[in-house]
Amino acid sequence: MTSMLSQSWVVIVMNLRSLPRRIWMSLAMVLASAVVVAILLAFLAMARGFEATLEGAGSDDIAFMLRQGSAAELNSSIVKEQVDLLETAPGVMSDGDGPLVSPELYVIVDGIKKTTQTEANIPLRGIHPQGIKLRNSFQLVQGRMFTEGTDELIVGEGILREFDGFELGEEVRFGKYSWKVVGVFSTGGNVFESELWADARVIQSLYNRGSSYQSVRMKLSSPEQLAQVQAFVESEPRLNQDTQSEAEYFSQQGQSLSYMALFGRIISSIMALGALAGALNTMYTSVSDRATEIATLRAIGFSHMSAFIGTMVEAMTLATIGGIVGSIAAFLLFDGINASTLGGSFTQVVFKFELTPDLFKQGAYLALIIGFFSGVFPAWRAARVPVMTAFQNAR
Amino acid sequence: MKDLYLIYKNLTRKKLRLFLTSFAIFIAFLIFGAVTALQGALNSGVEMSADNRLVVVHKVNFTQSLPYSYVNKVKSIDGVDKVTHSNWFGGYFQEPANQVVTFAVDPDTYFDVFEELVLPPEQMASWQQNRASILVGERLARANDWAVGDRIPLSSNIFTNKDGTITWDFEIAGIFNGETEQVDTGYAVFHYKYFMETQTWGGDYVGWMILTTSDPSINEQVGKAIDASFANSQAETDTSTEKAFNKAFIEQVGNIGLIIFGVVFMAFFTILVVVGNTMILAIRERTSEIAMLKTLGFTSARIFRMVLAESCLLSFIGGLLGLGAAYLLLQGVSQQLARFLPNLVLDSSIVLQGLFYMLVLGLITGIVPAVRALRLNIITAFAKG
User: Fold this and answer.
1) Run of H or E including A166
2) 3-state DSSP call for residue A211?
3) Are B256 and A109 inside 8 Å of each other by CB?
4) Which of A151, A186, B57, B153 has CB atoms 3.0–4.6 Å from B62's, for a disulfide?
5) What phi-psi label fits residue B164: left (phi over 0), alpha (psi between -120 and 50 degrees) or beta?
6) Average pLDDT of B234-257?
7) In this complex, which of B157, B235, B264 lies closest to A267 when CB atoms are compared?
8) Within 13 Å, how many C-alpha atoms sit on residue A343's CB side?
9) CB within 8 Å: B20 and A113
10) What pLDDT does residue A395 have?
């Protein structure tokens, strides 16, 4: 047993030290493994970042209502009378300023994207002070809150990052009306940061919305209250809302990019097959390159096993180096980069690519799989080389 | 002829390596074909837009609507040929997830402006006469298995029908097709007036207007004239060419598209580098054989050609198989994806690009060993071997 270990060790060291002799082939294998890992990580980081931005936005103890069948805030409409009725639903919390119910408006306006200098959809949310209390992580990072009844607005940090002209103190013009930016807010990186917020009543009057709203959020004393609110809405003929928890709503919206993760996995698995073919070439070359050595070792009494292990370790080492290189490259190139895309509400969602440790783990598995399969067949051949033929071929 | 036999023998001397190398090239071109077609499908709206078509939307954003009276005002502006308008219905079939792109349009002018859409005259007439009927695009009809004469209930995720439901019943009066395969026919259109009269909000507004100018060269001038005539009104307008409008819309999907395609193309080229490296080394191994051929009287130029032909052949074997597989793959999935990506086709420009890359790969991987072979000094080669 110990002799096999020491034999294998000798072969491993010998193989690795002879790598420079096959430098180009070895580099090719490292590169192949690196690229596949980097691609997988890029797609996963994008999907992860997008999901985190949306899923971080919803709470379990907030009931969220849209007109039946609407699926997104943009399409929905809810009239004032319905809002008044909803305020009487069971389980709704109140504070000193009245029930914690927030009817909101959602208007789409144009902003100029920094990256492309083209117009893109931004949501302008009409909100009341009660609504801001429903965003736990809300924090003003610059300036102040808008004053009710005025044409002042506050902008999310995401908008500031991705769009031109929303700096504190700027006047922004949407069609006929201009607004003054008086504050910048953060909500801990979630999707609300991709929005502009202004007084709901001002938006109703400027955009001819009468007294109607588009969505209603309400704070419940506990997540279990949701079922009661749903029953209440069902039984009241004047209401036609779909009720779900805010967390549920956003996790559905977050899934719209989940096809990205799927696409990434498919692409990188297909690419992995291509890379595997390249890696196999490398390892077969390595085995035939060392045919004389292997034969010599076998002739002086080294076991089949040591030849097998030696080649295996060489393959795994190269693939692992590739995996590390790929992960570092993905981290440097993609982690934290800002991106924005159309979300479920037809507006821009600003998010960051996120390379979390569990994603690196997936990358590492992929590299090891490539290493294993590119090593095992050539290693088998190395172990099987008949001593005589190897000497003959080496000539 | 002898050369061809030699090339064939050289290629197949290590069958496993031949297989692995062509397989890697195959994969690279499979991905290249599929992803380029995908990218083309995403951008097809831009390429299919007509030169002389302009789109007029509300200046705040295209989701805001315009007063109906604007249609006639725009018609009277110099250089405007035909005008039509459209409203977004927010349609879905049975389940909200099953979206059906539906517009409420003016039945008399819509097909004059979108000339690339064709349908039998009797279907057109029957649609124009029956206010509660709908015209369905060929691709949409195929995706849902709808035929002329079917009654389909379409629900709206925005509007409410006056009967208290959110669903409208339509009879399919006709199915329209595109002049070419690239024309988008994944949507349905019905009568604007019927829509306005049957929905609870009613009113006189249009979502946006589409118009043709008498000549593409005056596009900019006409656009400015339209915007100027509505300046300082309740609803200011923003006029752009159809191409610019579609492009801006695609850019909303944003840099993620750019990042994805960038990443995939990087990968494509890296695989080629990896494979190229193997191919170069494979020929390098044969230095002494090439010296032998020279000794036997093969001219340097002949060997140069043979080496180059071998690498090109290898590149084309893998590449063509890869593109072929991409074609089959796209044929297979385009049915399923018709609803989202109507124009998923591997067209001739992609094939030409692919052929170009195959040739480049073959030449680059062949040129290094070929030049070496050309310069090879027989004596030193044998001395080393």
Assistant:
1) none
2) coil
3) no
4) B57
5) left
6) 81
7) B264
8) 33
9) no
10) 47
Instruction: Say whether B166 sits in a helix, a strand or coil.
Output: coil
Partner residue opposite A270 with nearest CB, options B21, B27, B235: B27
pLDDT greater than 80 at residue B8 = yes
Q: Round to whole Å and give the CA distance between A202 and A174.
A: 14
> Å from B200 to nearest chain A CA?
12
Partner-chain residue, chosen from A175, A281, A337, that has the shortest CB–CB distance to B278: A281
Nearest to A102 by CA among A138, A62, A157: A62
Which residue is it, tokens 């299919």? Answer: B48
Tokens at B207, concatenated: 């979502």
Mutate to test the interface with B, among A36, A68, A110, A177 (most CBs of B within 10 A): A110
**Mean per-residue pLDDT, B73-79:** 92
Q: Mean pLDDT in runs of 10 for chain A (395 residues)? A: 81 86 87 91 88 87 89 86 92 90 92 85 93 92 94 94 92 88 92 94 89 93 92 90 91 73 82 88 84 84 87 93 95 87 78 91 94 93 79 59
The answer to whether residue B191 scores a pLDDT higher than 70 is yes
Task: Indicate the length of chain A as a whole number.
Answer: 395
Residues in chain B: 385
Considering only CB atoms, which chain A residues are within 8 Å of B23? Answer: 273-274, 277
Instruction: Give the model confidence (pLDDT) of B342-384 as tens digits.
Output: 667 788 889 999 999 999 999 988 888 888 888 888 887 777 6
Instruction: Provide the percentage of residues in chain B whose pLDDT is more than 70.
Output: 96
State the pTM of this model.
0.81
pLDDT at residue A213, rounded to an integer? 94
Model confidence pLDDT, tens digit, residues B127-162: 999 999 999 999 889 888 999 999 999 999 888 898
Q: Which residues have a Cβ under 8 Å from the Cβ of B68 and sit 6 or more positions away?
A: B85, B204, B205, B206
Structure tokens at B301: 């130029």
Alpha-carbon gap, residue A200 to B344, rounded angstroms: 43
Block residue for tokens 């808008």:
A146
Nearest-Cα residue of chain A relative to residue B232: A176
For residues B247 and B249, give the distance between their C-alpha atoms in angstroms, rounded to a whole number. Answer: 5
- Give the Å distances, CA to CA, from B305 to B57, B246, B248, B311, B357: 61, 49, 49, 10, 19
Strands (E), B146-252: 151-156, 167-178, 188-191, 205-206, 208-213, 237-241
Å from A82 to nearest chain B CA? 15
Distance from CA of B264 to the nearest CA of A (A): 8
- Is residue A155 within 8 Å of residue A184, measured between CB atoms? yes
SS (H, E, C) A251-280: HHHHHHHHHHHHHHHHHHHHHHHHHHHHHH
pLDDT band at B333 (very low <50, low <70, confident <90, very high): confident
Token couple for A152: 């002042």
